[in-house]
Amino acid sequence: AENEQPWGTPCTQLLVFVATPGCDGFPSLDSKESYKLSVSEGSLLLSADAVWGALRGLETFSQLVGRDENGTYYINKTEIVDFPRFPHRGLLLDTSRHYLPLRAILETLDVMAYNKFNVFHWHIVDDPSFPYESLTFPELSKQGAFNAMTHVYTASDVQTVIEYARLRGIRVIAEFDTPGHTLSWGPGAPGLLTPCYLGRDPSGTYGPINPILNSTYQFVSSLFQEVSAVFPDFFLHLGGDEVDFTCWKSNPKIRAFMKEMGFGKDYKKLESFYIQRLLDIISSLGKGYIVWQEVFDNGVKVRPDTIIHVWKESSTRYAEEMANVTKAGYRALLSAPWYLNRISYGQDWMAAYQVEPLKFEGSPEQKDRVIGGEACMWGEYVDVTNLTPRLW
Amino acid sequence: RYYEYMFGQSRQPKRGRRPPGARAEPELLQLQVVIESGDPGCHGYPHLASSEAYHLTVTEPVAILKADEVWGALRGLETFSQLVHEDDYGSFLVNESEIDDFPRFAHRGILLDTSRHYLPLKSILTNLDAMAFNKFNVLHWHIVDDQSFPYQSIYFPELSDKGAYSYNHIYTPTDVQLVIEYARLRGIRVIPEFDTPGHTQSWGKGQKDLLTPCYNGRQPTGSFGPVNPILNTTYDFMTKFFKEISSVFPDAYIHLGGDEVDFSCWKSNPDVKEFMRKQGFGIDYAKLESYYIQKILDIVSSYNKGYMVWQEVFDNKARLKPDTVVEVWMNNNYAHELSAVTGAGFTAILAAPWYLDYISYGQDWKKYYSVEPLNFPGSEKQKKLLIGGEACLWGEFVDATNLTPRLWPRASAVGERLWSSKNVTNLQDAYKRLTNHRCRMLRRGIAAEPVFIGYCAYEAR
Description:
By secondary structure, chain A is an alpha/beta fold. Chain A has 13 helices and 16 strands. In chain A, the strands form 4 sheets. Chain A has an 8-stranded parallel beta barrel, surrounded by 4 helices. A 4-stranded mixed sheet of chain A has the order 1-3-2-6, covered by helices on one side. A two-stranded antiparallel sheet of chain A has the order 4-5. In chain A, strand 10 (about 195-200) and strand 11 form a beta hairpin. The longest helix of chain A has 18 residues, at about 265-285. Chain B has 2 domains: about 1-10 and about 25-100, Chitobiase, domain 2 (2-Layer Sandwich), CATH 3.30.379; about 105-445, TIM Barrel (Alpha-Beta Barrel). Chain B has helices at about 1-5, 70-85, 120-135, 160-165, 175-185, 205, 230-250, 265-270, 270-280, 285-300, 310-315, 335-345, 365-370, 380-385, 405, 410-420, 425-445; strands at about 30-35, 55-60, 60-65, 85, 90-95, 95-100, 105-115, 140, 190-195, 210-215, 220-225, 255, 305-310, 325-330, 345-350, 385-395. In chain B, a hairpin with a 2-residue loop joins strand 10 and strand 11. The radius of gyration of chain B is 24 Å and the shape is elongated. The interface of A and B includes residues 343 and 380 of A.
């Protein structure tokens, strides 16, 4: 008949039921993101254990809603039971190689939510610039930012990011990468970085953080005390990648220290010495930590609940690294095949899609230690002009 | 618009706060623009032989920009606007200068593809602005292709009715005129490309019997190949269609395509095979292709237009008029192709090393910058026949969401190569100027992507 509606009873309400309240808290690695969605005639029901699952279910629900040629919104009858395979699904942004204005970060958080990402790995400072405005050490950004007025993240900016993320069920894990990748820390913290030498004289250039001075550990302790308080997530990313030993080797005081400690010519031992002390500091602040794979590769003694971030895609196949890391009993995060900053012509999304994170030799217990992965968008060639189309 | 580019949106140039006690500095009050020719060209269209040379003298109190034609004045104005800089106190400064400038190559183009993805008008116009900032002077508008036909034809409305992605993905006659005028005001020629006989799947939707039906044995398969070269109706259609195109687009040249013709469909069609036999072409389908192309070239010539073609048309030995421009695009030993084309007496433009849609990680602008177009074996006379080049941004993976950052500032490297002298090749110097120029484009509303690590005082919004 002409007047017959092709659609059923119009639905006007999605009922959201959350078993365990917790809207005021922060998401964590253990958060439950499972949900159930029931769509039938006259009834739309979304139920989840925790609010984080409700957020995921809401995203799914919003993707099920279609619109026909007449402009009517409709949804198919459906039953969905859903939960994530991996609990750590992250995205790395680099705000040191290029400053990213707040709105670019917030926009990225929105799109992360559309794609059910739940970790924002904020690689906030590095060699080229230090945009993080520290309360304890204001000189760091004053001297180290590209422009201390316009290219910084104030305490308020940082809180805005954390809260915006929280409302989308996204954890913010800050990375203050040391002892390498710290050139921008130097101007605002004189004496922190190792002075490099040319023969007997300082060359005027600087290298990684100086691991032999007590002042270094005082500084690091104070800074991370602040960072631990500012960023509510249990985990901090401590970096530890690509430490270039040349400068340390050139410095006579460091060479003397090496001799004193019996490290011989093995500078990995010096790197470990620094990292271990750093990890102790972080632990005493009640935080857990994630480190890049070199920390593991170089035999640093780390706590058993350390998460190792696998990123190298060169000499060893990353699958082998995943096997080694998990075999040693550590949890692993995979990023190696997902360096989205390494652009190439064509539909490269397929290569990223075809990665199977658990494709490595190992026991089921090992495989369980892979908690997820992260797509990385390093910033050498990326800023707000091209971030969004390059990432999505 | 140049006033705004130099001094920003809302303000009048104000006197900067000079340190107290400073003596009065020389001031530039005026830039006088003098166009010397009897016919400056302001109401006309730019063309291949337009004069783009200019002479700029910056001295107090009045700077003078002299050019033969208005097109040179536009180039000089762009240069002048780049000389003006702002100091830390907000004063605008310009150094005393004397510049005598002209382009090395006359054809400096950008190819945009609006068939693989529709590009909204705004995106095309913004790109024309960016082109002007980089002294490009040709927009090669690859307007239709296999995937979609967004050009709304007056004589054949069905072409876009049936061939465009949707009603919202169309360029109306008004849209087209807007692009042409916006370009003209910037000294940019608009050369449309209606690529045939290949790359024409979308034409078949709105023009029945235009494309060749493919066969499997004795049965038509239901799919179609290139334009059908054996039917009179094809040439009747093309005659009428190109009459429209010739009147809609004022430039002296039309690009007729002629690339990548796949012969398999022609080979499968019994009528085509019969035609080949009758014409004595044997099994050489390149002869059939040339037969078709020659007829199209003659049609377009009859409308007093010159034409550009992709290199296959030359390679397959079609009969070309002497003023044909051959576009060399195949990257396999393009120097050899340039020798062949110019050796045969034809004008050439180079696109092969400048396919900017082929993105890769890192500072690839350097490889575009390092191309020396005249590095091919040939006489002085031959080298004169290379009139320029084009940076191409094919649209398979490009639309308005990523066009600007993908094209700029990488295309700027091509722009300099085509304008500046042969010996301007220092990469370190170019890097400094390119990063500065990129920040300048940001200030002017072009979302050019970063060259490398760093920042601009004025970042993109």
